Protein backbone atom coordinates (compact mmCIF):
# COMPACT_ATOMS: atom_id res chain seq x y z
CA UNK A 1 0.00 0.00 0.00
CA UNK A 2 1.10 3.49 -0.76
CA UNK A 3 0.99 4.64 2.84
CA UNK A 4 3.15 1.76 4.03
CA UNK A 5 0.58 0.54 6.54
CA UNK A 6 -0.50 -3.07 6.87
CA UNK A 7 -4.27 -3.47 6.93
CA UNK A 8 -5.65 -5.55 9.79
CA UNK A 9 -9.18 -6.58 10.68
CA UNK A 10 -11.04 -4.81 13.48
CA UNK A 11 -10.01 -5.93 16.97
CA UNK A 12 -12.99 -6.54 19.27
CA UNK A 13 -11.63 -8.32 22.38
CA UNK A 14 -12.00 -6.18 25.50
CA UNK A 15 -9.69 -6.60 28.52
CA UNK A 16 -12.45 -5.62 30.99
CA UNK A 17 -16.16 -4.83 30.62
CA UNK A 18 -15.38 -1.11 30.69
CA UNK A 19 -12.30 -0.72 28.48
CA UNK A 20 -12.11 -0.65 24.66
CA UNK A 21 -10.15 -3.39 22.84
CA UNK A 22 -6.46 -3.17 23.73
CA UNK A 23 -5.20 -3.88 20.22
CA UNK A 24 -7.47 -1.19 18.80
CA UNK A 25 -6.07 1.33 21.27
CA UNK A 26 -2.53 0.52 20.17
CA UNK A 27 -3.26 1.62 16.63
CA UNK A 28 -2.24 5.05 15.30
CA UNK A 29 -4.98 7.71 15.36
CA UNK A 30 -5.90 6.81 11.77
CA UNK A 31 -4.92 3.43 10.36
CA UNK A 32 -5.77 1.00 7.58
CA UNK A 33 -8.54 -1.55 8.17
CA UNK A 34 -9.37 -4.73 6.26
CA UNK A 35 -13.15 -5.17 5.99
CA UNK A 36 -14.84 -8.60 5.78
CA UNK A 37 -16.07 -7.92 2.23
CA UNK A 38 -12.52 -7.24 0.98
CA UNK A 39 -12.78 -3.47 1.17
CA UNK A 40 -9.62 -1.65 2.23
CA UNK A 41 -10.66 1.24 4.44
CA UNK A 42 -9.73 2.90 7.70
CA UNK A 43 -10.40 3.05 11.41
CA UNK A 44 -10.12 6.32 13.35
CA UNK A 45 -9.13 6.07 17.01
CA UNK A 46 -7.77 9.57 17.68
CA UNK A 47 -10.06 12.20 19.17
CA UNK A 48 -9.06 15.02 16.82
CA UNK A 49 -9.24 12.83 13.72
CA UNK A 50 -12.59 11.34 14.67
CA UNK A 51 -14.13 14.70 15.46
CA UNK A 52 -12.84 16.17 12.21
CA UNK A 53 -14.35 13.36 10.14
CA UNK A 54 -17.70 13.63 11.93
CA UNK A 55 -17.84 17.35 11.13
CA UNK A 56 -16.68 17.12 7.49
CA UNK A 57 -19.45 17.23 4.84
CA UNK A 58 -17.13 15.45 2.42
CA UNK A 59 -17.91 12.23 4.31
CA UNK A 60 -21.21 10.46 3.74
CA UNK A 61 -23.51 8.26 5.84
CA UNK A 62 -25.41 6.91 2.81
CA UNK A 63 -25.92 3.23 3.45
CA UNK A 64 -25.04 2.04 -0.04
CA UNK A 65 -21.59 3.64 0.30
CA UNK A 66 -20.72 2.11 3.68
CA UNK A 67 -18.86 -1.11 4.43
CA UNK A 68 -19.46 -3.11 7.61
CA UNK A 69 -16.25 -3.69 9.63
CA UNK A 70 -17.34 -6.71 11.65
CA UNK A 71 -20.03 -9.36 11.56
CA UNK A 72 -21.17 -12.42 9.69
CA UNK A 73 -23.12 -12.69 6.46
CA UNK A 74 -24.37 -9.11 6.63
CA UNK A 75 -20.82 -7.76 6.55
CA UNK A 76 -20.03 -9.39 3.20
CA UNK A 77 -23.14 -8.19 1.36
CA UNK A 78 -23.29 -4.81 -0.32
CA UNK A 79 -26.11 -2.77 1.17
CA UNK A 80 -28.82 -1.11 -0.88
CA UNK A 81 -29.76 2.57 -0.59
CA UNK A 82 -31.76 3.43 2.50
CA UNK A 83 -35.54 3.51 2.16
CA UNK A 84 -37.31 6.89 2.25
CA UNK A 85 -37.40 8.22 5.82
CA UNK A 86 -34.27 6.44 7.10
CA UNK A 87 -32.69 9.82 7.76
CA UNK A 88 -29.53 8.65 9.63
CA UNK A 89 -28.38 7.26 6.27
CA UNK A 90 -29.05 10.48 4.38
CA UNK A 91 -26.75 13.40 3.70
CA UNK A 92 -27.84 17.05 3.63
CA UNK A 93 -30.08 18.48 2.31
CA UNK A 94 -32.36 15.41 2.58
CA UNK A 95 -31.12 14.72 6.09
CA UNK A 96 -31.71 18.35 7.09
CA UNK A 97 -35.40 18.15 6.14
CA UNK A 98 -36.05 15.35 8.63
CA UNK A 99 -33.95 16.87 11.40
CA UNK A 100 -35.88 20.11 11.05
CA UNK A 101 -39.19 18.28 11.49
CA UNK A 102 -37.96 16.46 14.60
CA UNK A 103 -35.61 18.86 16.38
CA UNK A 104 -38.10 20.56 18.70
CA UNK A 105 -39.62 17.20 19.70
CA UNK A 106 -36.27 16.23 21.23
CA UNK A 107 -35.05 19.66 22.35
CA UNK A 108 -34.44 20.73 25.96
CA UNK A 109 -37.93 22.22 26.38
CA UNK A 110 -39.68 19.02 25.23
CA UNK A 111 -37.41 16.88 27.39
CA UNK A 112 -38.24 19.08 30.39
CA UNK A 113 -41.88 18.27 29.73
CA UNK A 114 -41.04 14.56 29.77
CA UNK A 115 -39.37 14.68 33.20
CA UNK A 116 -42.54 13.62 35.07
CA UNK A 117 -42.83 10.57 32.80
CA UNK A 118 -39.14 9.72 33.27
CA UNK A 119 -39.51 9.96 37.06
CA UNK A 120 -42.74 7.96 37.02
CA UNK A 121 -41.30 5.09 34.98
CA UNK A 122 -38.16 5.12 37.12
CA UNK A 123 -40.16 4.88 40.35
CA UNK A 124 -42.31 2.10 38.90
CA UNK A 125 -39.20 0.09 38.03
CA UNK A 126 -37.71 0.63 41.48
CA UNK A 127 -41.01 -0.24 43.16
CA UNK A 128 -41.08 -3.45 41.16
CA UNK A 129 -37.58 -4.35 42.27
CA UNK A 130 -38.38 -3.60 45.90
CA UNK A 131 -41.61 -5.58 45.73
CA UNK A 132 -40.03 -8.64 44.15
CA UNK A 133 -36.97 -8.55 46.39
CA UNK A 134 -33.42 -9.45 45.48
CA UNK A 135 -31.62 -10.79 43.65
CA UNK A 136 -32.70 -9.18 40.39
CA UNK A 137 -31.41 -8.66 36.87
CA UNK A 138 -30.88 -4.92 36.80
CA UNK A 139 -30.91 -4.92 33.00
CA UNK A 140 -34.43 -6.31 32.58
CA UNK A 141 -35.91 -4.95 35.81
CA UNK A 142 -34.58 -1.41 35.55
CA UNK A 143 -32.35 -0.42 32.63
CA UNK A 144 -34.48 -1.76 29.77
CA UNK A 145 -38.01 -0.66 30.71
CA UNK A 146 -37.34 2.99 31.56
CA UNK A 147 -36.02 4.25 28.17
CA UNK A 148 -38.39 1.97 26.26
CA UNK A 149 -41.47 3.19 28.10
CA UNK A 150 -40.42 6.82 27.69
CA UNK A 151 -39.84 6.55 23.93
CA UNK A 152 -43.09 4.62 23.52
CA UNK A 153 -44.94 7.36 25.39
CA UNK A 154 -43.23 10.06 23.32
CA UNK A 155 -44.10 8.38 20.02
CA UNK A 156 -47.57 7.25 21.07
CA UNK A 157 -46.75 3.52 21.00
CA UNK A 158 -48.80 1.27 23.34
CA UNK A 159 -46.96 -0.04 26.38
CA UNK A 160 -47.88 -3.62 25.49
CA UNK A 161 -45.69 -3.37 22.37
CA UNK A 162 -42.54 -2.58 24.38
CA UNK A 163 -41.04 -6.03 24.79
CA UNK A 164 -41.68 -7.02 21.17
CA UNK A 165 -39.94 -3.85 19.97
CA UNK A 166 -37.02 -4.42 22.35
CA UNK A 167 -36.49 -7.98 21.09
CA UNK A 168 -36.56 -6.83 17.46
CA UNK A 169 -34.12 -4.00 18.20
CA UNK A 170 -31.66 -6.45 19.77
CA UNK A 171 -31.72 -8.56 16.60
CA UNK A 172 -31.11 -5.49 14.43
CA UNK A 173 -28.07 -4.50 16.48
CA UNK A 174 -26.55 -7.99 16.68
CA UNK A 175 -23.81 -7.90 14.06
CA UNK A 176 -24.06 -11.67 13.60
CA UNK A 177 -27.78 -11.64 12.80
CA UNK A 178 -28.55 -13.02 9.36
CA UNK A 179 -30.09 -10.67 6.78
CA UNK A 180 -33.45 -12.47 6.95
CA UNK A 181 -33.49 -12.09 10.73
CA UNK A 182 -32.81 -8.38 10.43
CA UNK A 183 -35.52 -8.06 7.80
CA UNK A 184 -38.04 -9.75 10.09
CA UNK A 185 -37.04 -7.49 12.99
CA UNK A 186 -37.44 -4.36 10.85
CA UNK A 187 -40.85 -5.63 9.72
CA UNK A 188 -41.89 -6.09 13.36
CA UNK A 189 -41.06 -2.49 14.23
CA UNK A 190 -42.48 -0.96 11.05
CA UNK A 191 -45.65 -2.97 11.61
CA UNK A 192 -45.92 -1.50 15.09
CA UNK A 193 -45.52 2.00 13.68
CA UNK A 194 -48.19 1.39 11.02
CA UNK A 195 -50.60 0.24 13.71
CA UNK A 196 -49.92 3.38 15.74
CA UNK A 197 -50.47 5.64 12.73
CA UNK A 198 -53.67 3.83 11.79
CA UNK A 199 -55.08 4.28 15.30
CA UNK A 200 -54.03 7.91 15.63
CA UNK A 201 -54.78 9.09 12.12
CA UNK A 202 -53.89 12.74 11.71
CA UNK A 203 -55.24 13.77 15.11
CA UNK A 204 -52.69 15.43 17.38
CA UNK A 205 -55.00 15.83 20.37
CA UNK A 206 -54.10 12.54 22.02
CA UNK A 207 -51.42 11.21 19.71
CA UNK A 208 -47.70 11.28 20.25
CA UNK A 209 -44.85 12.59 18.15
CA UNK A 210 -45.76 10.44 15.14
CA UNK A 211 -49.24 11.95 14.99
CA UNK A 212 -47.79 15.47 15.16
CA UNK A 213 -45.34 14.78 12.35
CA UNK A 214 -48.10 13.14 10.29
CA UNK A 215 -50.30 16.21 10.77
CA UNK A 216 -47.60 18.41 9.24
CA UNK A 217 -48.33 16.82 5.88
CA UNK A 218 -44.67 17.05 4.88
CA UNK A 219 -43.96 13.31 4.70
CA UNK A 220 -45.31 10.49 2.59
CA UNK A 221 -46.77 7.43 4.31
CA UNK A 222 -43.59 5.47 3.55
CA UNK A 223 -41.35 8.22 4.90
CA UNK A 224 -43.42 8.54 8.04
CA UNK A 225 -43.45 4.79 8.69
CA UNK A 226 -39.70 4.43 8.22
CA UNK A 227 -39.05 7.53 10.31
CA UNK A 228 -41.08 6.02 13.14
CA UNK A 229 -39.15 2.77 12.81
CA UNK A 230 -35.84 4.62 13.16
CA UNK A 231 -36.97 6.56 16.23
CA UNK A 232 -38.46 3.50 17.91
CA UNK A 233 -35.47 1.26 17.14
CA UNK A 234 -32.82 3.76 18.21
CA UNK A 235 -34.67 5.52 21.01
CA UNK A 236 -34.07 3.07 23.83
CA UNK A 237 -31.23 0.53 23.37
CA UNK A 238 -28.24 2.90 23.72
CA UNK A 239 -29.73 4.46 26.86
CA UNK A 240 -30.66 1.14 28.44
CA UNK A 241 -27.15 -0.12 27.69
CA UNK A 242 -25.65 2.98 29.31
CA UNK A 243 -27.93 2.64 32.35
CA UNK A 244 -26.89 -0.95 32.98
CA UNK A 245 -23.21 -0.48 32.14
CA UNK A 246 -23.04 2.76 34.15
CA UNK A 247 -24.59 1.08 37.18
CA UNK A 248 -22.15 -1.84 36.74
CA UNK A 249 -19.17 0.53 36.69
CA UNK A 250 -20.37 2.35 39.81
CA UNK A 251 -21.01 -0.92 41.63
CA UNK A 252 -17.34 -1.81 41.18
CA UNK A 253 -16.10 1.64 42.25
CA UNK A 254 -17.67 2.84 45.53
CA UNK A 255 -15.54 5.98 45.64
CA UNK A 256 -16.93 7.18 42.31
CA UNK A 257 -20.41 6.04 43.20
CA UNK A 258 -20.30 8.35 46.21
CA UNK A 259 -19.80 11.31 43.85
CA UNK A 260 -22.91 10.66 41.76
CA UNK A 261 -25.46 12.47 43.93
CA UNK A 262 -23.29 15.58 44.35
CA UNK A 263 -23.37 16.47 40.65
CA UNK A 264 -25.42 14.02 38.53
CA UNK A 265 -25.02 16.11 35.37
CA UNK A 266 -21.22 16.07 35.51
CA UNK A 267 -21.23 12.41 36.54
CA UNK A 268 -23.35 11.36 33.56
CA UNK A 269 -21.06 13.15 31.10
CA UNK A 270 -18.06 11.28 32.49
CA UNK A 271 -19.89 7.94 32.36
CA UNK A 272 -20.79 8.63 28.73
CA UNK A 273 -17.15 9.40 27.91
CA UNK A 274 -15.76 6.47 29.84
CA UNK A 275 -18.19 3.83 28.58
CA UNK A 276 -19.23 5.06 25.09
CA UNK A 277 -21.54 2.22 24.02
CA UNK A 278 -21.66 2.95 20.26
CA UNK A 279 -18.76 0.75 19.28
CA UNK A 280 -18.65 -0.46 15.65
CA UNK A 281 -21.45 1.13 13.66
CA UNK A 282 -20.48 4.81 13.41
CA UNK A 283 -19.07 4.93 9.89
CA UNK A 284 -18.43 7.43 7.13
CA UNK A 285 -17.36 7.06 3.50
CA UNK A 286 -15.32 9.74 1.73
CA UNK A 287 -17.05 11.33 -1.25
CA UNK A 288 -13.77 12.83 -2.50
CA UNK A 289 -10.13 12.45 -1.47
CA UNK A 290 -9.77 14.00 2.00
CA UNK A 291 -6.61 14.57 4.02
CA UNK A 292 -7.08 13.94 7.75
CA UNK A 293 -4.22 13.85 10.22
CA UNK A 294 -1.62 13.59 7.47
CA UNK A 295 -3.37 10.63 5.79
CA UNK A 296 -5.32 10.78 2.55
CA UNK A 297 -8.64 8.95 2.70
CA UNK A 298 -9.54 8.28 -0.92
CA UNK A 299 -12.99 8.75 -2.38
CA UNK A 300 -15.05 5.60 -1.73
CA UNK A 301 -13.09 4.47 1.33
CA UNK A 302 -15.04 3.80 4.52
CA UNK A 303 -13.82 4.89 7.95
CA UNK A 304 -15.00 3.28 11.18
CA UNK A 305 -15.06 5.89 13.93
CA UNK A 306 -14.08 4.09 17.13
CA UNK A 307 -15.82 6.40 19.60
CA UNK A 308 -14.91 4.37 22.74
CA UNK A 309 -11.23 4.69 21.83
CA UNK A 310 -11.40 8.34 20.74
CA UNK A 311 -12.99 9.18 24.09
CA UNK A 312 -9.94 7.64 25.82
CA UNK A 313 -7.45 9.79 23.87
CA UNK A 314 -4.91 11.10 26.43
CA UNK A 315 -4.34 14.12 24.23
CA UNK A 316 -7.90 15.23 24.96
CA UNK A 317 -8.71 13.72 28.37
CA UNK A 318 -5.96 13.45 31.02
CA UNK A 319 -5.75 10.01 32.66
CA UNK A 320 -8.43 8.79 30.26
CA UNK A 321 -8.62 5.24 31.65
CA UNK A 322 -9.72 6.48 35.06
CA UNK A 323 -13.42 6.92 35.78
CA UNK A 324 -13.51 10.31 37.47
CA UNK A 325 -16.99 11.70 38.08
CA UNK A 326 -15.48 14.96 39.31
CA UNK A 327 -13.85 15.75 35.95
CA UNK A 328 -15.40 17.84 33.18
CA UNK A 329 -15.90 15.51 30.23
CA UNK A 330 -17.37 18.23 28.04
CA UNK A 331 -16.64 17.62 24.38
CA UNK A 332 -16.79 13.82 24.48
CA UNK A 333 -18.01 12.09 21.34
CA UNK A 334 -20.39 9.54 22.85
CA UNK A 335 -23.27 11.14 20.92
CA UNK A 336 -21.18 11.79 17.84
CA UNK A 337 -20.57 15.27 16.45
CA UNK A 338 -21.68 17.43 13.56
CA UNK A 339 -24.99 17.32 11.68
CA UNK A 340 -25.58 13.66 12.60
CA UNK A 341 -25.06 14.15 16.34
CA UNK A 342 -27.58 12.03 18.23
CA UNK A 343 -31.05 13.57 18.00
CA UNK A 344 -32.06 12.11 21.36
CA UNK A 345 -29.03 13.19 23.38
CA UNK A 346 -30.98 15.54 25.69
CA UNK A 347 -33.52 12.81 26.43
CA UNK A 348 -30.80 10.22 27.07
CA UNK A 349 -28.97 12.53 29.46
CA UNK A 350 -32.16 13.23 31.41
CA UNK A 351 -33.00 9.52 31.69
CA UNK A 352 -29.49 8.67 32.87
CA UNK A 353 -29.43 11.45 35.48
CA UNK A 354 -32.84 10.63 36.93
CA UNK A 355 -32.58 6.85 36.83
CA UNK A 356 -29.04 6.36 38.14
CA UNK A 357 -29.51 8.86 40.96
CA UNK A 358 -32.82 7.31 42.00
CA UNK A 359 -31.41 3.77 41.83
CA UNK A 360 -28.70 4.36 44.37
CA UNK A 361 -30.92 6.54 46.56
CA UNK A 362 -33.50 3.75 46.78
CA UNK A 363 -30.94 0.96 47.18
CA UNK A 364 -27.87 2.44 48.89
CA UNK A 365 -26.55 -1.05 49.59
CA UNK A 366 -27.04 -2.35 46.05
CA UNK A 367 -24.26 -4.75 45.06
CA UNK A 368 -23.39 -7.34 42.44
CA UNK A 369 -24.87 -10.78 43.07
CA UNK A 370 -22.06 -12.48 41.12
CA UNK A 371 -18.36 -11.73 40.70
CA UNK A 372 -17.85 -8.89 38.24
CA UNK A 373 -15.94 -11.17 35.87
CA UNK A 374 -19.06 -13.35 35.51
CA UNK A 375 -21.28 -10.55 34.19
CA UNK A 376 -21.83 -11.39 30.49
CA UNK A 377 -21.24 -8.58 27.99
CA UNK A 378 -22.78 -7.93 24.58
CA UNK A 379 -19.60 -7.81 22.52
CA UNK A 380 -21.09 -8.63 19.10
CA UNK A 381 -23.52 -5.76 19.01
CA UNK A 382 -23.37 -2.34 17.41
CA UNK A 383 -24.41 -1.06 20.85
CA UNK A 384 -22.16 -2.45 23.57
CA UNK A 385 -23.54 -3.44 26.95
CA UNK A 386 -24.25 -6.31 29.32
CA UNK A 387 -26.56 -9.25 28.68
CA UNK A 388 -27.47 -9.53 32.35
CA UNK A 389 -26.55 -7.66 35.51
CA UNK A 390 -27.41 -9.74 38.61
CA UNK A 391 -27.66 -7.54 41.71
CA UNK A 392 -28.92 -7.87 45.23
CA UNK A 393 -29.35 -5.65 48.25
CA UNK A 394 -29.92 -5.81 51.97
CA UNK A 395 -28.09 -4.50 54.99
CA UNK A 396 -24.41 -5.37 55.18
CA UNK A 397 -21.75 -4.04 57.55
CA UNK A 398 -19.67 -1.31 55.95
CA UNK A 399 -16.47 -3.35 56.06
CA UNK A 400 -18.07 -6.25 54.20
CA UNK A 401 -19.57 -3.91 51.62
CA UNK A 402 -16.16 -2.39 50.93
CA UNK A 403 -14.51 -5.79 50.78
CA UNK A 404 -17.06 -6.94 48.21
CA UNK A 405 -16.33 -3.93 46.02
CA UNK A 406 -12.60 -4.54 46.32
CA UNK A 407 -13.10 -8.14 45.25
CA UNK A 408 -15.15 -6.96 42.29
CA UNK A 409 -12.30 -4.74 41.14
CA UNK A 410 -9.82 -7.58 41.58
CA UNK A 411 -12.08 -9.84 39.51
CA UNK A 412 -11.81 -7.38 36.64
CA UNK A 413 -8.03 -7.59 36.76
TrEMBL record:
Keywords: Heme, Iron, Metal-binding, Monooxygenase, Oxidoreductase
Any GO molecular function: heme binding
Entry's family note: Belongs to the cytochrome P450 family.
CDD domains with a match to the protein in the record: CYP105-like
Entry-linked Pfam families: p450
Protein name: Cytochrome P450
Taxonomic classification: Bacteria, Bacillati, Actinomycetota, Actinomycetes, Streptosporangiales
Chain intervals with Polar residues compositional bias: 1-10
Region (Disordered): 1-25, 69-91
InterPro entries hit by this protein: Cyt_P450, Cyt_P450_B, Cyt_P450_CS, Cyt_P450_sf
